[in-house]
Amino acid sequence: MTSRRMKISRFFRHRQHPLKMVEYSSRNLWLLLIPLSKYLIASRFNFQEWIRTNWVDILAISGIFALALLRWIFVRFDIEPDGITAHSGIFGIVSTKIYFSQLTSVSFCQSWYGRPFKVHTIYAETNAKTVSREDLKLVLSGKNADLLYEFISNGEYVKPKVTYSPRKLHLMIFSLIFSSALSGVLLYGTFMFEVYKILGLKTEQQMLRRVNGEIDKLDRQLFNLSKLVPRAVLLIAVIVMLCWSISFIATLARHWSFTVSRSKDQFYIRSGAMIKRRHIINRDKINYYDLTQTLLMKLFRICSVTLDCTGYGKRRREISALIPITTYRRVTTTLRLLTPDLPLPKPEVRTGTASDVRRFVTLPAVCSVLPIVAMKLLEHTFMGRHREINALLVIITVPLLWLVIVKAAASFNTSVGFSEQGCVMNYCRWYKFHKVFLPKSNISRIRIVRNPLQMLNHTCTLKIYTVGESGRCHTMFSLPYDDVRAVCMREGYVLFE
Amino acid sequence: MKRYLPAKRAMLCGYLVLAALGAVLSFLIYRYAALLPAGTLRIAAGVMWTLILTAALVFIPHYFFHAKVVITKNEIAASGGFFYFKDDYMPIGSIKSISVISTPLGILTGFNFVVINALGSRVVLSFLRKRDARDIAATVNSMISGEQLLPDTIPDSEGGGRT
């Protein structure tokens, strides 16, 4: 009996306070609005009847909103010399202190609808993994947000050492390159979900029908493309184009008026047209710098510099840009100005032989042949649909062929190198080329993988994991094993026989 | 430097699990897939047994003959892989926490695992003897807290613990 009591007592000793259960439940109480609205619609908006029958529910929901008011009253923050303390939760009983020295980034966002009310949402992030998505989120007035900005930046943002701002034309090119149909689909999906939440399914369907009708009308009046291209393919093409345009506008709006300034310890980044964003980034908390390029950017000798720092570029598919776009000629100079203490080692182990080209190209080449074979096999199943099948074949094969070209270029652009302080990695992931610079202390793991084929040709795949919230892995294929081994041993890693 | 090898009992258990899996799947195929034509049944059973035999003759021996863990004062190195050869190197400085997963009957089966968590990555050390798993956890925890340095002498253990 005593031992059972002890077990029960031990079970409860290390649990949170039971009051937490109330907090866990309160988040979903808004769901009660659904049956209440249903009754209101059922009673054909007869408010008197509705109140008479549902007064208990209405009272309960009013109570919930009263509780929200109370919560708003109790949630507060204090700016202290060494950090910020936020009191949140019911009656402000949850107190979180974040030291300024531990902050990785702080973002101040002002949405278009928050601007008239001078509302700023502040996201403060550290490298600690917390239960919620961000370590600290506060919604503050403009005055308080400015005060906090000044405090965190220690007033240094008014006299930065270096400031860089790209031209508008460069920003257009940047948006052009970094926009994707997939991001557009996600944005459009988010928008339609919001419409569904606010106006309901019927209005959403009406809206979709209207869009389809407009596309049809446009085609009939202007292009008459449906006579040349199958309707289904045309519709897909228009949807992809529309989604890409949405993504382009969103990326451009996000990075409009982009300015980055550097002080002794921090970066100050401002950007955005619709949503005004200000970021403060602690420079010593940056995990790595990434010079990103596509093959076309390589040909035009331009690149984009992004950085990996917990919190920056995390929300709403933002790009964590440091220099949105610049030329090869200017990138080193700009990087030296913005990050004078960043080690820039030279690559030591690299690919680039004829057999490397074959190894890089084989898999995508096989993949690009597969759709043609599949279509040939399916030809008999879909008799009389040659036009659609051919169009689909082109849609699938062209990106795969482009991938073959990209991988051929990647075989000359894969390398790794270490210096006393830093590390450089050149590699290609899908269609993008990356050149990553980081201090060696930010490497969290190195993995060397060899498959039986690589054992035969004395190559290996080197994976370098970097510290950070996302746990990014940088993969370099087909590097010469003996050279990688020699470099790793020189760097102090005890390698297996 | 400390060195650990995977538990041989885990290898034996792996074979037992595979044999049991083969028997159960064979029973299920012939008992519940009787409606299928005999040729299809034979192909299904053939594919299944090929996979099981490949696992038994290639994957399991490959892992257990290749896997090892080495802890030095600067890093943890783990070698493994069922088909590939994978060598992991994690600097001690980047380790944030360590978890030990001991399954029920872990002493008998050797199904004990150690998960080493760093900021941004994780190394899983699999199929260790229970004593080795606890020893690794204790060693790494003491190295994280800086309480003691790694001894130069190596404790003698059945599965591992060699220089």
Topology (elements, then pairings):
The complex is a heterodimer of chains A (497) and B (163).
Chain A: H1 2-13, H2 19-26, H3 33-42, H4 47-74, E1 76-79, E2 83-88, E3 94-99, E4 103-110, E5 119-126, E6 136-141, H5 142-152, E7 162-164, H6 168-178, H7 181-199, H8 201-223, H9 231-255, E8 259-262, E9 266-271, E10 276-282, E11 288-294, H10 295-299, E12 302-308, E13 321-327, H11 328-338, E14 349-350, H12 354-378, H13 386-410, E15 415-418, E16 422-429, E17 432-439, E18 443-450, H14 452-457, E19 459-466, E20 473-480, H15 481-490
Antiparallel strand pairs in A: 1-2, 2-3, 4-5, 4-10, 5-6, 7-8, 8-9, 9-10, 11-12, 11-17, 12-13, 14-15, 15-16, 16-17, 18-19, 19-20
Chain B: E1 2-4, H1 8-32, H2 38-66, E2 68-71, E3 75-80, E4 85-91, E5 95-102, H3 106-109, E6 112-118, E7 121-128, H4 130-145
Helix pairs in contact in B: 1-2
Summarize the structure in words.
The complex is a heterodimer of chains A (497) and B (163). Chain A has 497 residues and is of the alpha+beta class. Chain A folds into five domains: 2-74, no CATH class; 83-165 and 257-338, no CATH class; 171-254, no CATH class; 354-410; 412-490, PH-domain like (Roll). Helix content of chain A is 46%, strand content 25%. Chain A has helices at 2-13, 19-26, 33-42, 47-74, 142-152, 168-178, 181-199, 201-223, 231-255, 295-299, 328-338, 354-378, 386-410, 452-457, 481-490; strands at residues 76-79, 83-88, 94-99, 103-110, 119-126, 136-141, 162-164, 259-262, 266-271, 276-282, 288-294, 302-308, 321-327, 349-350, 415-418, 422-429, 432-439, 443-450, 459-466, 473-480. In chain A, the strands form four sheets. A seven-stranded antiparallel beta sheet of chain A has the order 6-5-4-10-9-8-7, with helices on both faces. A seven-stranded antiparallel beta sheet of chain A has the order 13-12-11-17-16-15-14. In chain A, a hairpin with a 4-residue loop joins β9 and β10. Chain A is globular. Chain A starts with a helix and ends in a 7-residue tail after the last helix. By secondary structure, chain B is an alpha+beta fold. Chain B has a single domain, classed as Pleckstrin-homology domain (PH domain)/Phosphotyrosine-binding domain (PTB) (PH-domain like). Helices cover 45% and strands 26% of the residues of chain B. In chain B, the strands form two sheets. Chain B has a four-stranded antiparallel beta sheet. Chain B has a three-stranded antiparallel beta sheet with strand order 5-6-7. In chain B, β6 and β7 form a beta hairpin. Chain B is elongated and about 65 Å long. The A-B interface holds A 127, 287, 441, 443-452, 455, 465-473, 488, 492-496 and B 1, 68, 70, 72, 74-75, 77, 79, 81, 83-91, 93-94, 118-123.
